[in-house]
């Protein structure tokens, strides 16, 4: 009997974790695994705010995928996916075709920058840290602020699902300016679609709201909630509820959409390009197709005056990947495995310290009272976690998730 062919699309948290987990369950004699990704490097995306603020270089949080995957006898191909035929079970790329028995879509997102006119950075004055090139460009923009101080706006667009970096970038930039003795020359404003600080697309958690309110107020960072950002110019950030907020450096997190190949493949995604799945991360109708991470269609926690989508973090992506990998292995053995609600654990950097947040499950009501803690020790833990994760991932080991991210 031929070995089942498993194809994984994407080489970030979802794809890499799925590959490692599948190899834990299935030896190379039992399954042929191929990982296809448009980039040949893994990047630790949670450290992008540190790259933007100059505390990290991109090469410090990256490593080539081919070596660790090869050591696990997972074939790696650098290619761009062009189409997925779920009925014929064929993935088409710019380098050829891959037939599959099982497919895991871990393609991540496309930043819908077009939702905010002026949100560049390459075709407009706005900045975003949602990809490696954008983050490096943002780092250069922050250096320009240090050379020529002026007002700064940090925010998220309506429909954003990645709110944490808004707070991190605001706090880190504040800390950087204070260290340079320039904070008094840079008025800072935080604009968020959230109905209150700390909502983060999950309805808030514990005491995170007063913690963030106090932290922004003590740092003289003006903030507004329920804000719909409508455009960015060289001089200001435009919103639906007020006149423009002056800004020489505008950092805005866009809403996310599914990548083009997924969105264009018939019967694979919803209108926004995300893949509908069940609680085992199986596609709701396409046999043998799974999705994990940002590519998954997840409904918001509830309606808000300005749309805020369900959060998607690396920690949650790894949970999805482990559930999907275990389910594929179980199906090959003719058995079923249990699943679980998503939980979240993350450390939010605040420049001179950090805040730890743990919720279980993500969607309220919750089985456990959320944990919220603040202090310098959490910043040290975040730094240690980054190093431990990168070391483990390079070695092809199961990555640590003690603190989440």
Could you characterize the architecture of this molecule?
The protein has 405 residues and is an alpha/beta fold. It has 2 domains: 5-109 and 258-341, FAD/NAD(P)-binding domain (3-Layer(bba) Sandwich); 113-255, FAD/NAD(P)-binding domain (3-Layer(bba) Sandwich), CATH 3.50.50. It has 9 helices and 22 strands. It is globular and about 70 Å long. The two termini are 42 Å apart. The mean pLDDT is 96.
Summary?
The chain has helices at 13-25, 48-52, 66-71, 132-147, 164-179, 208-218, 260-263, 314-332, 376-394, and strands at 5-9, 32-37, 41-43, 62-64, 75-78, 81-85, 90-93, 96-99, 102-105, 110-111, 152-156, 188-191, 221-224, 229-232, 236-239, 245-246, 249-253, 256-257, 289-291, 344-349, 354-359, 371-375. The protein is α/β, with parallel strands linked by helices.
Overview features:
405 residues, alpha/beta, FAD/NAD(P)-binding domain, 2 domains, 4-stranded parallel beta sheet, globular
Q: How many strand units? A: 22
Largest sheet: 5 strands, parallel
**Spatial shape:** globular
CATH architecture of the largest domain: 3-Layer(bba) Sandwich
Provide the low-confidence segments as ranges: none
What is the average per-residue confidence, as pLDDT, rounded to a whole number?
Answer: 96
Level-1 CATH class name of the largest domain: Alpha Beta
Overall tally of structural domains: 2
N-to-C CA distance: 42 Å
Radius of gyration: 21 Å
Helix content: 25-40%
What is the strand arrangement across the widest sheet?
Answer: 5-2-1-9-19
Portion in beta strands: 15-25%
- Treating each run of at least 4 consecutive H or I residues as one helix, how many helices? 9
- CATH names the topology of the largest domain as FAD/NAD(P)-binding domain
* SSE class: alpha/beta
